[in-house]
Amino acid sequence: MKHLWYILPLLFILSCEDKKDTTPPEVTITSPSSGSTVNKIVTVTCLSTDNKGVEKVELWIDGVNSGLTDDSEPYSMEWNTTQYENKSYIITVRSYDTSGNEGDSDPITLIVENNRFGNTFGGSSSDVGESVQQTTDDGYIITGYTKSFGNGGYDFWLIKTDSNGNEEWNKTFGGSGGDYGVFVDQTQDGGYVITGGTGSFGNGEEVWLIKTNSQGNEEWNKTFGGSSRDYGYSLDQTQDGGYVITGHTHSFGNGESDVWLIKTDSQGNEEWNKTFGGSDQDSGFSVKQTTNGGYIIIGYTYSFGNGDSDVWLIKTDSQGNEEWSKTFGGSHNDYGYDGYQTQDGGYLVTGRTTNYQMGESDVLLIKTDSQGNEEWSKTFVDGSWSYSVDQTLDGGYVITGLKSPIGNEGYPPSGSDVWLIKTDSQGNEEWSKTFGGSSNDEGRSVDQTLDGGYIITGYTESFGNGGSDVWLIITDSQGNIK
């Protein structure tokens, strides 16, 4: 027995090792509940128990460690879902105790619908956003049209939000007919001016121009047109405080419809108007005053060019007299929707083409020199087109429109998403983002914000209150929803 003294400590050690705790810690996710729809920042909370104490918990998403941890009670982790696609995710929490054991919670399912973002406006019927602009108070002004509210049919809709996209006020304008607001601009006095088409006032379907104060209260309105169908698509406040409008007219001009350019004074009284076109359909969708006091119009023409319809770029002097015009396109339909004078004195045009990509519809981006001669053009995937473009602070361009996952089959393409494309100064894509759900969603207007991000409006059938809703999307400089 005197030789067994050295065995006792070893037996004690072996005995302790045999009794080491190997029970995995239990962990339960307490919030959010399984099946919840989440967006933006989601706080995942849990309870974890173990008689040896819990060292930390981790959040796992679809079987992958998210890198989010917490090491003290109450256990919670903030998951930023804006970097994730809109779909369902399996969420688990893993718990570690001080003995080195680990245990997983029962999984839950969370549905990310980040693009909801709380910035939908509408009722149970059809509501569409057509134009958005950042305002001088860092908020946003949106115009479009609503069937959910107003006096009947569709009405002009003007919505003012704060910098986070929360509504401050809204106004409707219209009568018993169809009234469609298409473009809004903040005026030099802090108010707003809207154009579009009215079926409620005037001689028929006419161009409608409405001026409001800073609270959206109407100061005056004017109609322009004849006995047929006339429509305004775009306007710009001019250097003399007046306004210039473009659209199309069936009442005047040379053919079925002509591009129409109307110049008014500061009270909306017409000073002059001009028509441009041939025997077929021609329309203007965008107008801007140029640095020399003239105007640049972007639209389409069936009367001139190479094929069915071509992009049409028209430059006028300060009195609306044509200085030159250019067409761009091939044997199929090509349309210009938006553009402006670039920093180098040339012009940028965006729209869609069904010529360059085997007959499918593509986003089209064209850069010209100061005389409208093409310097380069770019197209972006089939089943898509763009409505709006803005030159960015870095000299590149940002485009919004729509993208369909199944190609261009009718209008709108089934399952279309809002598409945001950022290019460099030569039109080469730097990145793109899509936003949408299971139904049709479109971007109609984009504006770069003062912080380098982007603001988009259009409509969504995937989110909101019913039918289609006005959709406002606010992103950072990389196109991620804020």
Please supply descriptive tags for the structure shown above:
single chain, 482 residues, mainly beta, Neuraminidase, 2 domains, four-stranded antiparallel beta sheet, 2% helix, elongated
Description:
The protein is mainly β and 482 residues long. It has 2 domains: 25-112, Immunoglobulin-like, CATH 2.60.40; 115-475, TolB, C-terminal domain (Neuraminidase, 6 Propeller), CATH 2.120.10.30. It is built from 1 helix and 37 strands. The protein has one helix at residues 7-18; strands spanning 26-31, 36-38, 41-49, 54-61, 64-70, 75-80, 88-97, 102-104, 108-112, 120-121, 127-134, 140-146, 155-161, 167-173, 179-186, 192-198, 206-212, 218-224, 230-237, 243-249, 258-264, 270-276, 282-289, 295-301, 310-316, 322-328, 334-341, 347-353, 362-368, 374-382, 384-391, 397-403, 417-423, 429-435, 441-448, 454-460, 469-475. The strands form 9 sheets. Strands 2, 4, 5, 7, 8 and 9 form a 6-stranded mixed beta sheet that branches. It has a 4-stranded antiparallel beta sheet with strand order 10-37-36-35, with no helix packed on it. Strands 11-12-13-14 form a 4-stranded antiparallel beta sheet, with no helix packed on it. The protein is elongated, with a radius of gyration of 29 Å. Residues 4-8 and 10-18 have low confidence and may be disordered.
What would you report as the Rg, rounded to the nearest angstrom? 29 Å
Instruction: Assign the CATH class of the largest domain.
Output: Mainly Beta
Major sheet, described briefly?
6 strands, mixed
- Work out the helicity level: under 10%
CATH topology of the largest domain: Neuraminidase
Shape: elongated
The total of helices stands at 1
Strand content: over 45%
Total separate domains? 2
**CATH arch. level architecture of the largest domain:** 6 Propeller
Look at the structure and give the mean pLDDT: 90
CATH superfamily membership of the largest domain:
TolB, C-terminal domain
The structural class is mainly beta
Counted beta strands: 37
Low-confidence stretches: 4-8, 10-18
Cα-to-Cα separation, first versus last residue:
77 Å
